[in-house]
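Today's session is about reading a structure prediction critically. Students often jump straight to the picture, but the first step is always the sequence itself: look for stretches that repeat, for charged clusters, for runs of hydrophobic residues. Only then move on to the predicted structure, which in these notes is written as discrete structure tokens rather than atom positions. Here is the chain we will use throughout the hour.
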Amino acid sequence: MKILLLEDELMLQEAIEEYLGDKGYIVDVSMDGLEAYGKIVTSTYDLLILDINTPVLNGLKLLEKLQNEKNFIPTIFISAITEIEQISKAYELGCYDYLKKPFHLKELTLHIDRLLKIAKITSKSMVKMSKMYTYDLEKGRLFFDNEEQVLTPKQAQIIHLFASNVNRIIDFDMLRHYVWKDNFVDNATIRAEMHRVKKILKENLVQSIKGIGYKIHKVL
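Below is the predicted structure for this chain, in token form.
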């Protein structure tokens, strides 16, 4: 697994890099958020470990920038900050965990192991649809807060279509082609099925586009 570590305390940075390296992880390090961002857009990482108070671009702003660019990478924050507003902001941005300094290095690996088990970040087919929803494109499985959701076959087809086209409008013809295999169904029938899908979702995930179709409304 390849990790990017953003930490401007040199001694802590070196200690974490060495410790995780000994555990078999590949670790890239950055002293400031802007440098970290440059590495993220030119490389591929399975996990980000971010301090909050870093020069140029802090950890929260970095994660917010990545989220706005639809670049979703599992993230653990490490910080001495204890203000609930900052911690809440980190989770609102979609971080998986928050580790308060000072901490034992073994504690960090325990958090990483927990994240690997819960988030299944080794699967490159996982699509983050919202703050709580993820979808496995390869296996066709929808998860809410890491728990698999039960779907009917038709609901599963609809969710797969939307997960494959996040941020794109899915019009009635696309739904008719993919879900109903071009068999004639009127728009009212499609609306009724979409209404059922929206009712089973625990977040306001699907946005209606009047007269056109639907779009994933990301709740992040």
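Discussion point for the tutorial: The mean pLDDT is 86.
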